[in-house]
C-alpha cells in the first residue's frame, strides 16, 4: 500500500490556491494512479499552536490525484464546521494527507488500539462519524472518551445507552501516513 508523502500535501496546496483563483490547477503527472482511501486535513498554525480548519475524506478507494483534488477543496471550503479557508490564511496553513487501510468491523467497543487505529461509528438511521488514528492521543482521550466523542460527532445528543451501542457499528482503520 502506498504511503502518503510530502508531494501529496504540496499538490493539495496547489489545488487550493487554484480554487482561490491564485494560480492554474497543478498537473498530476507525477502522482501514481493507485486507488486509495484518503482524508485531507488543514490546520492553521499560530504561535506554534495548530488549530483544525477542515478535514474531510472518503473510505471509498479512488485514483489518488482525483481524490486529492476533490478532498483538498471539500475539506478547505466545505467542511460545515468551519468557514471556508481564505487566501489570507495560506501562509499559516498546514496540510496533512492520510491514506487509510481498509475498514474492519470491531468485535466490540474496545477492539481497537489508541494511536494505531482510527474509529468510524455508524448509528441506526445512517448517521456516522470518524476520528483518524492521531486524534484520540492528541486530545489525551481514553478509548471510552473517544467512543463517546465519535458518537456525539455523529450527531447523537441523547444519553449513550447499551441499546444504542448494541445497534451501532464500530469499525477501525489504520493510517499509512
Automatic annotation (TrEMBL):
Residues spanning the signal sequence: none
Gene3D superfamilies recorded: Hypothetical protein ph0010, domain 1
AMMECR1 domain location: 1-177
UniProt superkingdom: Eukaryota
SUPFAM superfamilies xref list: AMMECR1-like
PROSITE patterns per the UniProt record, alphabetical: AMMECR1
Protein name: AMMECR1 domain-containing protein
Organism: Malassezia arunalokei
Amino acid at each position: 500500500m502506498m504511503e502518503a508523502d510530502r508531494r501529496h500535501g504540496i499538490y493539495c496546496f496547489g489545488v487550493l490556491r487554484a480554487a482561490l483563483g491564485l494560480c492554474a490547477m497543478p498537473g498530476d503527472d507525477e502522482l501514481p494512479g493507485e486507488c486509495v482511501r484518503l482524508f485531507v486535513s488543514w490546520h492553521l498554525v499560530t504561535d506554534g499552536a495548530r488549530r483544525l480548519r477542515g478535514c474531510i475524506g472518503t473510505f471509498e478507494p479512488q485514483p489518488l490525484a482525483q481524490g486529492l483534488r476533490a478532498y483538498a477543496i471539500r475539506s478547505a471550503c466545505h467542511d460545515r464546521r468551519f468557514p471556508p479557508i481564505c487566501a489570507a490564511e495560506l501562509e499559516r496553513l498546514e496540510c496533512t494527507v492520510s491514506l487509510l487501510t481498509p475498514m474492519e468491523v470491531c468485535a466490540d467497543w474496545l477492539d481497537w488500539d489508541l494511536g494505531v487505529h482510527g474509529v468510524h461509528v455508524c448509528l441506526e438511521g445512517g448517521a456516522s462519524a470518524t476520528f483518524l488514528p492521531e486524534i484520540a492521543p492528541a486530545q489525551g482521550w481514553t478509548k471510552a472518551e473517544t467512543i463517546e466523542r465519535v458518537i456525539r460527532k455523529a450527531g447523537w445528543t441523547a444519553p449513550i445507552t447499551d441499546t444504542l451501542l448494541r445497534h451501532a457499528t464500530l469499525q477501525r482503520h489504520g493510517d499509512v501516513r
